[in-house]
Amino acid sequence: MSNLTLFWHRRDLRISDNTGLAAASKHQKVVGVFCLDPNILERDDVAPVRVTYMIGCLQALQQRYTEVGSQLLILHDNPVQALPRLAAALNAQAVFWNWDVEPYSQERDRAVMEALKEKGIQVLHKNWDQILHTPDEIYTGSNQPYTVFTPFWRNWSSKSKAEPVATLQGVTGITSAEQEIAQQAGVIPLPTAKDLGFVWDRDLIIAPGEIAAHERLEEFTYKAITEYKEQRNFPAIDGTSQLSAALKFGAIGIRTVWAATIAALENSRSDETDTSIRAWQQELAWREFYQHAMYHFPKLATGAYREAFKNFPYENNEELFQAWCEGKTGYPIVDAAMRQMNESGWMHNRCRMIVANFLTKDLLIDPRLGEKYFYQRLIDGDLSANNGGWQWSASSGMDPKPVRIFNPASQAQKFDPEGEYIRQWVPELRSVDTEYVLSGNIPEQEREALGYPLPIVDHKLQQRQFKAIYAQQKVH
Q1: DSSP state of 74
Q2: CA proximity to 52, closest of 361, 357, 429, 380
Q3: Ranges for the Photolyase/cryptochrome alpha/beta domain (predicted)?
Q4: Segment 252-264, tens digit of pLDDT
Q5: First and final CA of the chain: distance in angstroms?
Q6: Minimal CA–CA distance to 101: which of 449, 382, 459?
Q7: Could you give the CA distance from residue 322 to residue 41 in angstroms, rounded to a whole number?
Q8: Three-state SS for 191?
């Protein structure tokens, strides 16, 4: 049994273009393991839609392992105890995994590493898989991590990117006798999301798993990427990749994604198309910028980066917060976006910026409350991206332009000019004139008849109040 290697999957739920798994596959007997971690699943910010998508990815991954002659084993326990117990029971010679940027992941991984070493099991975990460049590859001239995106992008985009790595193949799994040993050591059948206490009764916005993610990438890079720069800001148009959940769980490899953008550039026949493809490449760099930031500045996970916002006196009015959560603010673009997320588990990126700006600048509510609510609802909820987006919108993060205040009406007029998106998600406004739908200045009698609320705050007044508080904070 001593020739067995275990590969611990976490945010890499695939067998293709997986750097750690490719390294493990140099051994012939390779078995996958996924641990349902109570430290994550029992938190109060876990979205049922996200768990449902993850379980779908694990079902697909089990199928992929079967196809190449091996297995994906499932544990449901603290990985610090469960993984070493399983590895020792199966007499595994090594455990491989990919490194992660998040504070909890790093703390957990160090504890698992120590526990495995105590049992004399080799640990090989220093593969970076979810990013194109490791955090120690991209530094400023003075050898510091970047805190501003534009110079990060210049450095990051100038470096050559790795090619996708080989798909797992030609391996063997464990025998029937070893499977019995594994069960005694805690291996269980893959539960459903409902078994774990998470109920999502609607369809998933995107099918889970490696094959589905590849199909979505192919579809996006065939057409939508060529018009991405123009169309990405219009929530009524299907102009974005919708690959964020697949990237969060690693149902697709980032090198595969990058290679697809290079192929699209090679097939491009116009400067406009080139510009669109590069705009999407830049979004991939933003994703990586936020991951590097989380790695270098783990305190971002719990609070503001900028001093002026570390003790900002937010009002945190509970009634206003509830109205925002439910999509009942009386601001149509805000309400449409919140209802889209509540009903589908996903929200268009332009709308994420609008609602986050509204919560922090109009309602004067702590962005951490909004960030947590997003995490409780989003299929693609990712600590680094969610935190980075919220801190950008709240002006509390790494940003050379400290205060951006969005006017919800002008955002709607610019990015939903026909009111299609608003009418889709706020059906009570379907019969209202477009001008009123966009501005939100719906006559009071009509509002009452439609059952649509009055605006919960006055944007102009709130904007002035926010600026006054911010000016005071800067003085201190």
Answers
A1: E
A2: 380
A3: 3-131
A4: 999 999 999 999 9
A5: 65
A6: 382
A7: 24
A8: coil
d(CA 26, CA 42): 36
Q: What radius of gyration, in Å, describes the C-alpha atoms of the chain?
A: 24
Backbone dihedral region of 149: left (phi > 0), alpha (psi from -120 to 50 degrees) or beta?
alpha
Residue intervals in the chain for CATH 3.40.50.620: 1-129
Topology of domain 1-129 in CATH is: Rossmann fold (3.40.50)
Quick: pLDDT tens for 106-116: 999 999 999 99
Contacts of 232 (CB under 8 A, 6+ apart): 239, 240, 279, 280, 349, 350
CB 230, CB 85: distance < 8 Å: no
| Torsion-angle region of 164 (φ positive above 0: left; ψ -120 to 50: alpha; else: beta) | beta
- Give the C-alpha distances (Å, rounded to integers) separating 376 from 55, 369, 372, 386: 17, 11, 6, 11
Q: Which two tokens stand for residue 87?
A: 């590895």
Number of Cβ within a 10 Å radius of residue 362: 28
Residue with tokens 């109060």: 44
Task: Indicate yes or no: pTM above 0.90.
Answer: yes
Report in angstroms the alpha-carbon separations of 223 from 89, 238, 239: 50, 11, 9
Give the whole-angstrom CA distance, residue 358 versus residue 404. Answer: 11
Residue 76 carries which side chain, given as an amino acid letter? H
**Total Cβ atoms within 10 A of residue 170:** 9
Q: Which two tokens stand for residue 192?
A: 């459903």
- Max Cα separation, the chain? 77
Boundaries of CATH 1.25.40.80 in the chain? Answer: 130-165+211-296
CB 31 within 8 A of CB 175: no
The DSSP line for 342-394 is: HHHS---HHHHHHHHHIIIIIS---HHHHHHHHHHH-TT--HHHHHHHHHHHH
SS3 content of the chain, % helix, strand, coil (to 5): 55, 5, 40
The residue whose two tokens read 């029992």 is 42
Q: How confident is the model at residue 282 (pLDDT cuts 50, 70, 90)?
A: very high
Domain 307-475 has CATH 1.10.579.10: yes
Would you say 236 and 418 are in contact if contact means Cβ atoms under 8 Å apart? Answer: yes
pLDDT per residue over 324-371, tens digit each? 999 999 999 999 999 999 999 999 999 999 999 999 999 999 999 999
CB of 13 closer than 8 Å to CB of 58: yes
Distance CA 471, CA 276 (A): 38
Asked if residues 231 and 271 have their Cβ atoms less than 8 Å apart, the reply is no
Q: What is the SS3 assignment for 30?
A: strand
At 244 the three-state DSSP class reads helix
Residue 476 pLDDT > 80, yes or no? no
